[in-house]
Design brief:
By secondary structure, this protein is mostly beta strands. The chain contains one helix and twelve strands. Bound molecules: thymidine-5'-diphosphate (TYD).
């Protein structure tokens, strides 16, 4: 987890089943994603110009999806940064542990859906960027 880099972050095309009545996209354990889902959470009602995230996780793996609207996920491995724009419900960002992330540029009405590999544990968070750099041995 300490060695993950931004290259381990991957955009995943999620299947889309649909017709004129609309679409369904499905994510199953170990199928689209390399982990079992233990928790689902979602961010919404984010005021324009606000930023979320600003932390890293030691063990948690996540799949991040713009269930509605759009936003940017800025990934940082301590050396390099990369911005992924999420704007479709059938596109997900696989986000492994050991990376710093910020989520910004939320459109109005955006919903950031997160499928997570563990239940909520504050001990798994690294909330200080300095501590993150030490954790990565940078
Ligand atoms: P946090 O993960 O810091 O939010 P973000 O990364 O979006 O800025 O969580 C915000 C608050 O919500 C914090 O007090 C912890 C709490 N929280 C839970 O209780 N359970 C959860 O599953 C999550 C994701 C957050």
């Amino acid at each position: 987890m300490k060695k993950t880099s931004i290259k381990d972050c991957k955009l995943i095309q999620i299947n889309q089943i649909g017709d004129r009545r609309g679409h369904i996209s499905v994510v199953e354990n170990q199928n689209e994603i390399p982990f079992s889902i233990k928790r689902v959470y979602y961010l919404y009602d984010v005021p324009s110009g606000e930023e979320r995230g600003g932390h890293a996780h030691k063990e948690l793996q996540q799949l991040i999806v713009a269930a509605s609207g759009s936003f940017d996920v800025v990934v940082d491995d301590g050396y390099n940064k990369k911005t992924f724009s999420l704007n479709r419900p059938n596109k997900g960002l696989y986000f492994p542990a050991g990376l710093w992330r910020e989520i910004n540029n939320f459109s109005s009405g955006a919903t950031c859906l997160v499928l997570a590999s563990h239940i909520y544990q504050e001990e798994d968070y690294i909330r200080e960027y300095k501590t993150f750099k030490t954790y990565k041995k940078i």
